[in-house]
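Escalated from tier 1: calcium ion holo job.
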Amino acid sequence: MKPADAAIDESAWASWERLPCPLAVVDVHGRLVGANGLFAGLGTSAGWDWLDVESRDELQLAWQRASDFELELARAPGPGWLVCRSRWDAVLQAHISVWQDLLSSKAAEQAAQLRLLADHVPALIALYDAITHRCLFANREYAHAFGFTERSVLGLTFAEVIGPEAAERIKPYVERVLRDRQPAQYERQLLGPDGRPRWIEVQLIPHLDAQGNSLASFVQILDITKFRLAEAAVRESEARLDKFMQASVEGILFHRDGIITDANPPLCDLVGYRLEDMVGRPALDFVAPQELHKVRQVMSQGQELRYESTVLHRDGTPIPVEFIVRTLLCQGEHLRMAIVRDIRAQLAAQSRIHHLAHHDNLTGLLNRVAFMERLVPAMQRAERGGQRLALLFIDLDNFKRVNDSLGHLQGDKVLVTVAQRICDCLRASDLVARFGGDEFVVLLDDIHQRDDVLVVLMALLSVVEVPVSVNGRDLFVTPSIGIAVYPEHGDSAEELIQHADTAMYLAKSDGRASYRYFEPAMAARAYADLVLESELSEGLARGEFRLHYQPQVDARDGRLVGAEALLRWQHPQRGLLSPDAFIGVAERHRLMVPLGEWVMREAARQSRLWHESGVAAVPIAVNLSAMQFRLERFADTVRQVLAEVGVPGAWLELELTERMLMDDVGTAPATLTALRALGLSISVDDFGTGYTSLAHLTQLPLDKLKIDQGFVAKLPDDAGALAITRAIVQMAQGLGLRVGAEGVRSRAQWQLLADWGCDDLQGELIAASMSADQFEAWLHSRHGAFPTMAQ
Ligand code: C2E
Ligand code: CA
Ligand code: CA
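Tier 2 regenerated the structure:
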């Protein structure tokens, strides 16, 4: 292809055409000015795109520089290398370039194969000229490792490849290889393309000619990062172990074959030695003699476990410890590590827990569990020795009152005082326990006759009386005691306690500050109670309870003024039962609370019926149990019942006994006030049998006193009853209270009571208690014909 440009003369052109290699004339813009036929054979038809992109860029730069150059270029897309040697012709203002197709030669083919091989070995390989230190060859891995390509790295000095700093560092090795003609090896760190440090191992191998002169250095680099990281991990874990050992508050000891190699400061402190005094000594030197056998065994068997043992302090003090022993592989060696944990505090806590578990926190006496644990062996001893034991079950009277009115703190003080006094009455060999609340249990051993127990009982009764001041009045906390004797009253611990408990309940019902021995009949009663208790709750669920009503009439004209609701139980086997048959049991087992609520609801319902039907527009009186009245928020319960049934408070009256008013000195006034605020009126039932002080009575918000039927029954003949009844009526009038009488059986009684000014009457004379239906019939029958005292 002859160029169009006339600057190239014809003869030059002809000689180029004859050249045995491709030739091209190219301007500084890389435009082909002319080319011989062979060049066209390279496949030059479409510009330079038969070269790869990188080669094209290099070539473009070379064209622009307007000077001689030589470049090794790659074909695209196929394999092959070309060498372009170019001369700048200033006259032509163009490059005259001669091309050599390396692929065409056999050597080039081999070179290409070698490169393929070099690129696939898992190492970084390069060859540097011995004189110029320029890179003659590098495989891809090598070139990439330093941020070059296989071609761009060629011709660069190693300082240019690996950086001046690194070059400075490896200079001595390079010099040695060149000077001594011996291989050299070194390791160094470099930053990988991802910015992470890498470790490499470099081998420098001299390439000598036949005369032994250095021609080049062969560089082979292995990436040993993986190994270095693994090593570092091991070193780190060792360092960590060391740090942990120093930082641990627990003692740590290392030994090899029983000889101490290391220990941390806490361990040194524990045994009182310095580290230098311990290292090199047998670990067993620090173990208590009685433990040697066990520790030696663990050591010899190389067991990994956790166990308790004892070490010795330098001053000989044995220290209980826990060992946690492990075997560690450390730098290829088996080391034994023992964590030595001081468990003195732990053992102390354990024994404290044991004490707590066996003793009552408040009084320090034994608790139920601990007492039972000792009772059984005491019974066995007594049986062997033919002796008797007495088990005393002590329950405090009035204690609940102290707690409720003075608070638990005062209650606790009373319990501590009582506990102390009980102990003062006993011998050291007697056992005392607090079973909870205000219950104490005492076991007296070596009892020969009842008198032996009596002495203690008398002492207890006289001494365990704690006066407590409540609102300026002294309450006496006294004991009620039940006694069961072994072996007569039971042969198991549970039975003995059960029987003493039963006897105690009976002592309590005798009044305060008394004692009772167990009798077999009591057990029968206790059993009957138990049966009754379960029947009661079933009866309540099955709706077996009823209310009967007893009319209350005006003493002057016999007009109906009220009715008292009286509880009955329609027992499936025993028929209709009166309250006396079951109320005691219901109260003891707290069933009185739901039962009492049922009574109130039923009475309210009946009152509503009678009011709305116009049968009897009078209030119904409901008897309250002490247990109900003492309930916290009792007034709230009443309010709820009223709201539920939909009746005003004025349609109900509540009957409380004197005892109830006295027992709850603390809360009674507030509860009564709340109840009256709901519209209910309050009667004091069985008045005259209690010990209510007049002063106290005047302070309470009350409406009515009901003279106890015991006094009424003795009227009109008994002078004492006459005097008392009359006084009650006068007193009530003086206090502005209404007064009623119950149990009125005769006209004479009615006459007297009416004369004195008693407001209303209740009793057989008027009518006995009856069902709601009967009550209505009764009312109907006497309609318009009120039986007055005159009749
Ligand atoms: P109380 O509150 O003193 O009730 C009066 C008791 O005397 C009733 O016996 C009544 O039937 C009886 N009575 C009244 N007038 C006469 C009479 O002229 N002659 C005779 N022989 N008896 C008469 P009841 O129904 O057996 O009740 C006994 C006690 O049971 C009551 O005495 C009361 O304390 C209690 N009670 C009754 N119902 C309830 C209740 O719903 N709740 C509570 N907590 N206790 C109740
Ligand atoms: Ca009553
Ligand atoms: Ca009564």
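The radius of gyration is 57 Å.
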